[in-house]
Amino acid sequence: xxxxxxxxxxxxxxxxxxxxFFSGKVYAENKVLINEFTxxxxxxxxxxxxxxxxxxxxxxxxxxxxxxxxxxxPANTILYPNSCLVFSSDFNLNKSSADTLxxxxxxxxxxxxxxxxxxxxxxxxxxGTGMSFLRLPDKSSTWTSATxxxxxxxxxGENCLVLPTATPTPTSAPTKDPxxxxxxxxxxxxxxxxxxxxxxxxxxxxxxxNRNDFDVSLQxxxxxxxxxxxxxxxxxxxxxxxxxxSSLELSASVFNNDGDSVRLLDGQKLPKxxxxxTSSVKGKTLGRVSFEDDKFCAQEPTKGQVxxxxxxxxxxTREATQASTSITPTxxxxxQNSASKPSPSQSAKSTLQPTTGGVPDPTGSVLGxxxxxxxxxxxxxxxxxxxxxFLSFSYSLLTIVSILLKMKFNV
Length: 411
Known about the structure:
- This protein is α+β, with helices and mostly antiparallel strands and 411 residues long.
- The protein has helices spanning 2-29, 318-326, 334-337, 344-350, 385-410; strands spanning 32-38, 44-49, 55-56, 61-63, 71-72, 78-79, 84-88, 99-104, 117-123, 131-135, 143-147, 189-195, 205-210, 216-224, 234-240, 244-249, 260-265, 271-277, 285-288, 296-299.
- The chain has a 5-stranded antiparallel beta sheet with strand order 7-2-1-10-11, with no helix packed on it. Strands 16-13-12-19-20 form a 5-stranded antiparallel beta sheet, with no helix packed on it. A 4-stranded antiparallel beta sheet has the order 5-4-8-9, with no helix packed on it.
- The protein contains 5 helices and 20 strands.
- The longest helix is centred in the first third of the chain and has 28 residues, at 2-29.
- The chain is elongated and about 165 Å long.
- Among the domains are: 1-27; 31-165, Lamin Tail domain (Immunoglobulin-like); 189-299, Immunoglobulin-like.
- A hairpin with a 7-residue loop joins β19 and β20 (296-299).
């Protein structure tokens, strides 16, 4: 009789034990969590390691709530203890409607029933441009929306990116070939200065600025000219210090001198920054005026340093313009005309052109000089003054003589 009365409490105990066992198992398996993700303007996902052990996430999958396409994490991707990695791609996340971001391990692809879900987060619509859904505190079960902080801990702002560059030791992950290292997409990486028209014998180069508070390693990123035109994207790898500059020298010419685009693409060939120009000046660079906007102008090269001042063409003064239109030269012989000032058509060629998009027009005169306006200085022209003066004097003399003769005969 005791067993029937005790069976109910025992069942409850068993249920509790089972819940604790499976919940503990699930938590142990969820060493890797989705810690933050953005939807627009570009889609990026930050994964964080919630344990004190390294986790190999090679060939794991990032997917939305359905569909036939998904993102596969590259091979040889190691997530260090208490660190994060950021991946950028088109994850097909909806902007204006509900969707779910899901993380699967490498058991099976997300489209089959045997796939293993590791973590997920559902939302109603995008949090907005430059905003993220994120865990706060990090690794917790509490989600909120805030300004994107990919690559940094959401609560403290400290860098959580750890790249596989350490020398192999018993306590660290093995060093991997940079060509197979995961390509991480960072925010706040800008094109700072570009040499598109180098002096003869020099090479084109592009300088980048890292506005983050931590060093970044651009692995297998791309530099490209106009989209779907010209040269194919050039792959490169480069480390940029926090709040610092690094430059990339191109082994072959990529950009046109008379107008082109310069585009920075991440490892998934998604655009991160760009500039467009309509002309260039040989030996001068196109330098960014401010990192708050997209304005560039012709500058003296300042590789590795803060950009200099814009070089602008001089503007003709009001007086010079008026003088150039008020002078009517006296007709000259063919021989004299050969040494006279330039014709109107020649003067038009030396007139300085206005700048376009902050870049001076190379068809103008030498920068910083006013030589092109020397032809506008009024010139004096000779007139037949001496012959006219002699005739006037003769006429006056004859008049006086005539008056004297009349006075004599009247007397």
